[in-house]
Amino acid sequence: MSDHNTEYLDANNAEKGQNRHLERVITPGGHPADFSQPAIPPQHRKYGNPVPLGLTSFGCGFFLASAYTLYARGVHTPNVMVPYTLWVVGNVPRKYIFVTFGVITAYTETDGTLSPQFNQAIGLYLMAWMMVTILFILGSLRSSGAVLATLSFTALAFLTLGIYQFNGSNSARIAGGRFLLLKMQTAWWGAMSGFWTRDTTFTWIKIDPIDMSPKNN
């Protein structure tokens, strides 16, 4: 330890600004002393997007509801589509829409029979959720074309199917089934626009959701 170039300097003395050359300061073990305090590097994390899964499930359920409403494959039971129409709505994107629509259920008597008031009650129920969907539409005007179209066709489907439940109009039933088909297509459009990314598939496989959010200049 006779080397006159060897000096020991702890962190406290270094902070006090003693007149020594830091490049000559070494630790007792013979290593260069380093009193720097580098900042923690930023962590860039990518969060999962639940919207594609919700829209995919939403569209699939409404495809079944549309098929039952349009009497596909000879299915003519008029109320088969009601549980699907009401239950699958719990898969709308945006978590507040998720929770709101997720509480919808259907009701029948314990013996399985339908009272004369059942269709009227279902019609009122569909009209109520049509109004709720309109509120969600107003809150999605600056989101994307896919989401806005999905909610719009959902509201129209509720409206026409509610009319069908009120008076048994065959035209309203057909219109409701077609709106359900359109809603299924726009839901899958929005779902795949969020799922088909450069992280999951080829770059040329891409769908534009028509982003309508305000851009910062």
List keywords for this structure.
single chain; 217 residues; mainly alpha; 2 domains; 7 helices; elongated; acetate transmembrane transporter activity; GPR1_FUN34_YAAH
User: Globular, elongated, flat, extended or rod-shaped: what is the shape?
Assistant: elongated
What composes the largest sheet? none
* Rg for CA atoms: 31 Å
Class derived from helix and strand content: mainly alpha
**Mean model confidence by pLDDT:** 72
Number of helical segments?
7
- For the terminal residues, how far apart are their CA atoms? 64 Å
User: In percent terms, what proportion of residues is strand?
Assistant: under 5%
Q: Point out poorly predicted stretches.
A: 1-9, 78-96, 102-106
InterPro entries: AceTr (IPR051633), Gpr1/Fun34/SatP-like (IPR000791), GPR1_FUN34_YAAH (IPR047622)
Subcellular location: Membrane
Membrane topology: Multi-pass membrane protein
Family: Belongs to the acetate uptake transporter (AceTr) (TC 2.A.96) family.
Q: What report would you give on this structure?
A:
By secondary structure, the chain is mostly helical. The protein has two domains: 1-36, no CATH class; 51-195. It contains seven helices and no strands. It is elongated. Mean pLDDT is 72; it is low at 1-9, 78-96 and 102-106.
